[in-house]
Design goal:
Elements: H1 2-7, H2 14-17, H3 32-35, E1 40-45, H4 46-59, E2 65-69, H5 71-76, H6 79-89, E3 93-96, H7 99-107, E4 113-116, H8 122-130, E5 133-137, H9 140-150, E6 157-164, E7 172-173, H10 177-185, E8 190-196, H11 208-226, E9 233-237, H12 239-244, E10 252-255, E11 278-283, E12 286-290, E13 295-296, E14 302-303, E15 308-313, E16 329-332, E17 335-340, E18 348-351, E19 363-370, E20 373-375, H13 377-384, H14 388-393, E21 401-404
Parallel strand pairs: 1-21, 2-3, 2-10, 3-4, 4-5, 5-6, 6-7, 6-8, 8-9, 9-10
Antiparallel strand pairs: 1-11, 11-19, 12-15, 13-14, 15-18, 16-17, 16-19, 17-18, 19-20
Helix pairs in contact: 4-6, 8-9, 10-11
The chain binds pyridoxal-5'-phosphate.
């Protein structure tokens, strides 16, 4: 797809070809990073993303809404692209973690509801209100401060009450949550639109803690129902719970990683048809021939035990690849090529001795599929002692991001 990135630089000339150029891209609207050739890049397949959302909607009962979690640039996939795909598929809400993440979406024309995950400091409230962002609230003092700022609006401002049922980070203690919910309902400038909790462990084999959290959440809901308070939207399920704890779906699920085609953990049931949306690729930019005893890279962390063909890939820890020594592999010509030596800022070295067909400028897969083989975010997480979430978000901004199968909105460019 490197060629495709290059093509965006110079659209075909209608005069020469007799065919009007198809305005798939407006290069001037792309980030410099994304319109500058570089033989290492992140590829995001928007068709797969759209298919994943469709698949998830087919599995959701009709009364259950979808909130798409697009924090941290949609786990590195591009918050605007993922938000547009989610909303087009029927998502009701988006969610981010920082006010800046939400404002970027607003500035790019996203008018959908945006829920701010986590707790907000009072200094953030005005900004949230000005940009029509919906806050999660949990403690009475914050609620009072938000209420006084909200009083200048004509209609009550919707808020979602976060309940701590056992994650023990954010949220009102579950034993006090119903009482706080009633206080919110009694505040004229606020409207209790939603009530939520977050699982600490929804994707492991052991569901005992998740079950305890669900029971506590349900007990808050029943207490609230007894007060006669109108039922807010209840939401608790993340991707793991969506897959395995149907009782947690309530009126809305909050999904981040699953629509991206990646599972939260190794034990989750697999969804037929779900595909990873992101790939990371680089081309072999140099080939070296080592004699036995010769080494490669910083610190000579690799020494050839036999006549060895080394390929150099122009991607390193400066691009987010976790630092390692003689660990992991990439795919070249559909085969596994071991990564040898130490990861540098801008390069890694791979052993292609056993892949004689490997040539200069061949495409190597750091994450993704090639032929019958693939390297998933889960595989990379295993190799580097991490989790798939961190692997998805590790790829840094200096890698060009190539979006496949863009659909053009009315304003012309999807990157506008
Ligand atoms: C409060 C909350 N809900 C939902 C999610 C989405 O989780 P997942 O990506 O596992 O679907 C997150 C992500 O961390 C979150 O913080």
């Amino acid at each position: 797809m490197f060629e495709e990135a290059l093509r965006t630089e110079a659209p075909p000339d209608a005069g020469a070809t007799g065919v009007a150029p198809v305005a798939l891209f407006q290069p001037e609207n792309l980030l410099v990073r994304d319109r500058t050739p570089r033989p290492a890049w992140v590829e995001i397949d928007l068709e797969k993303l759209r298919r994943n959302f469709k698949l998830i909607f087919q599995l959701l009962p009709p009364h259950v809404r979808l909130l798409s979690v697009v924090k941290d640039d949609a786990y590195g996939h591009g918050a605007l692209h993922v938000s547009k795909a989610a909303l087009a598929a029927g998502a009701s809400f988006l969610a981010v973690s920082t006010v800046a993440e939400a404002i970027v979406l607003r500035e790019r024309g996203i008018t959908a509801r945006i829920l701010m995950l986590g707790d907000r400091h009072e200094s953030e409230f005005s900004c949230c209100l000005a940009h029509d962002l919906t806050c999660c609230v949990s403690e009475p003092e914050g609620i009072r401060k938000l209420a006084s700022l909200a009083a200048r609006f004509e209609r009550p401002i919707p808020v979602h009450l976060k309940v701590n049922t056992g994650m023990n980070r954010y949220g009102a203690p579950w034993s006090q949550a119903a009482q706080i919910a009633v206080q919110i309902q009694a505040t004229p400038s606020l409207r209790l639109e939603g009530i939520l909790s977050h699982f600490a462990q929804s994707d492991g084999k052991d569901k005992s803690h998740a079950t305890l959290q669900l029971e506590r959440f349900e007990s808050v809901i029943s207490q609230l129902a007894r007060t006669g308070t109108p039922a807010p939207i209840r939401h608790m399920a993340n991707s793991g719970a969506f897959l395995e704890i149907p009782a947690a779906q309530f009126e809305m699920v909050r999904l981040g990683i699953l629509p991206l085609g990646v599972y939260p953990g190794p034990d989750c049931p697999r969804l037929a048809g779900l595909e990873a949306v992101m790939s990371v690729k680089a081309r072999i930019t140099a080939i070296q021939h080592l004699q036995p005893g010769e080494g490669a890279g910083y610190g000579i962390r690799f020494k050839a035990a036999r006549p060895t063909r080394i390929g150099v890939l122009p991607i390193g820890y400066g691009d987010g690849l976790p630092y390692a020594r003689n660990r992991g592999f990439v795919l070249v010509q559909g085969h596994r090529a071991p990564i040898v030596g130490a990861t540098a800022m801008d390069a890694i070295t791979i052993d292609v001795t056993d892949i004689p067909e490997a040539q200069l400028w061949d495409e190597a897969i750091i994450m993704g599929g090639q032929g019958a083989n693939s390297i998933s975010a889960e595989d990379l997480a295993d190799i580097h002692g991490s989790i798939p979430y961190q692997i998805l978000t590790t790829w840094r901004a200096r890698l060009p991001h190539v979006y496949l199968h863009e659909q053009i909105g009315p304003c012309g460019s999807p990157n506008a």
